[in-house]
Specification:
two-stranded antiparallel sheet, 1 helix, 16 strands, 39% strand, EGF-like domain-containing protein
């Protein structure tokens, strides 16, 4: 398109008739410019450029076309003279670029100061190798117990509040722990029915002697 500004009428954004200013210039990346009621200039920028409002040394504001790129997965704009990237779903802005940042459902994703992906998981989920995976240590009838669930080298781990201990991936009261130990010990003894006396649980079982 010729850099010569052509007279034209536009009806977008406002209902008033608007046209062009002869000889107006929005700088590099401009295809032309028009004006709206009140004399405000609107820049028509080439692909890869966007309109940006800047202030000159006299304190006067004017619009110009500025290169603005956020990569293939986002749209770039200037707001209050600051570059902003509107990224596609599953992407987040980091250093002016939309990068892949996805932790799955039940989560939101961000980058830390080292440009490392950080997963923020909703309640009942925990980060497992970059994906928020279901992870809950509260007993089914005691939700809100205050336990913490996370994955350690791929294994579910429970941190239980005082008075509770992890049993089979759930925080159970200490009394429940004793019941579990007793059952395990009796199951062990049942494997040797010919023994007619109480036998301690194997030391290697970690169950102790009942």
């Amino acid at each position: 398109m010729s850099t010569t500004t052509k007279i034209k009428l536009l009806d977008e954004l406002v209902g008033n008739s608007i046209g062009t200013i002869a000889g107006c210039d929005c700088g590099t990346g401009s295809e032309g410019c028009s004006f709206r009621s009140g004399g405000r200039i609107v820049c028509h920028c080439e692909e890869g450029y966007v309109q940006r409002t800047v202030t000159n040394w006299m304190g006067e504001e004017f619009n110009t076309c500025t290169w603005c790129d956020c990569g293939d997965n986002g749209r770039c704009r200037y707001e209050n003279d600051k570059k902003t990237c509107d990224c596609d779903e599953g992407y987040q802005e980091i250093r002016g670029e939309c990068r892949k940042c996805d932790c799955g459902i039940n989560s939101w994703c961000s980058f830390n100061g080292y440009e490392e992906k950080v997963c923020h998981c909703y309640e009942g989920y925990s980060d497992q190798d970059g994906t928020c995976t279901e992870c809950d240590c509260d007993p089914y009838n005691m939700k809100g117990l205050g336990s913490t669930c996370y994955f350690d080298y791929g294994y579910k781990t429970c941190q239980c509040p005082k008075g509770f201990e992890p049993i089979d991936g759930t925080c159970e009261a200490l009394s429940k722990r004793k019941e579990t130990q007793a059952k395990a010990c009796l199951d062990y003894r049942a494997l040797e029915p010919d023994i007619k006396y109480w036998k301690p649980c194997p030391q290697t079982s970690g169950l102790g002697t009942l």
